[in-house]
Design brief:
Elements (H helix, E strand, L loop, with lengths): L14 E4 L5 E4 L1 H4 L7 E6 L5 E2 L1
Antiparallel strand pairs: 1-2, 1-3, 3-4
The chain binds zinc ion.
């Protein structure tokens, strides 16, 4: 379950991303948008905190 953004802590993480070094974060749109060009989106997180396949 992904119930909080790993950066700002809000409860609407929208995407699970991977950085070049392999680190993964679940981010909300606000945190993801400025870095969207530098990370890979692995999956989207739905409103229930689960990955959308
Ligand atoms: Zn955030």
């Amino acid at each position: 379950m992904f119930t909080h953004c790993d950066r700002c802590g809000n409860d609407h993480p929208g995407q699970l991303v991977r950085h070049d070094d392999g680190a993964q974060e679940a981010l909300c749109f606000t945190c993801w948008n400025p870095i969207r060009g530098t990370v890979k989106v692995l999956n989207w997180i739905n409103k229930h905190g689960k990955l959308q396949f």
